[in-house]
């Protein structure tokens, strides 16, 4: 196996042929568990045509820098040679535990008290991440430039151009929402490390103590910016039992379970813990939903249009985009 030979050439003492299994999830990257006799590893690589060496190097370097401050997997090696598997990739240590999925908390029955504590710990870990000084993580392979209002506007313009390329006849027109965000970008006074995809299904919880976080996964979208961006993105995916049936049909994480905190309580707890004002919250709430809409559009294109492996799930996702679009417009009217 080419990966085994490469690992040995890098000084990692792996022996024999590994048991290889594709990991669940990971719609923007492919991850494989490689179980050797003495090593339990995970190989992570981008989809073909979906990212190169710079992206892999940045993700690898960020997690290596974060490890003393935040629970992340232990990075092993980064491979720049595309001849090994067809793309750049990196290898990290496997973190055993429970990874929640759409309607299940890693296959276990979670008590209401534990579900509440999971939410509290999830929020506290996000707050801890946002308290890390981005400048302390910088290295030759990792540049974390602080965001600015002009940079955020450029990002929104870029997202709108991608939306124009991928929009289908039955999809929502997101240009008015994007333009509203561009016109209402608040002053960027806070610069924190952002995960930008903080969700229950990107967390490994301890199997013996399900409320304890063992690792935060999937750092490919990480950046620096106002921490309310992270909260806005988290709450855009946060489904409650009383939400519209379309939202519940396409939920990404088991935030509906008895005992889980609601969006308003999560917001209140975050603002209290960080002493932040809710002054700019309307912008970041709409920002999170807008980014969610763009994610749905990209996944619909990749799976329903191009015939990806989640084709059936994403075939009718355009219905959800219209509902979230309507929700955004309502928030804009009252902002």
UniProtKB/TrEMBL annotation:
PANTHER family: HAD FAMILY PHOSPHATASE (PTHR47829:SF1), HYDROLASE, PUTATIVE (AFU_ORTHOLOGUE AFUA_1G12880)-RELATED (PTHR47829). This is ACYL-COA DEHYDROGENASE FADE36. It comes from the Bacteria. It comes from Lysobacter capsici AZ78. Residues 19-250 form the Aminoglycoside phosphotransferase domain. It holds the Pfam family APH.
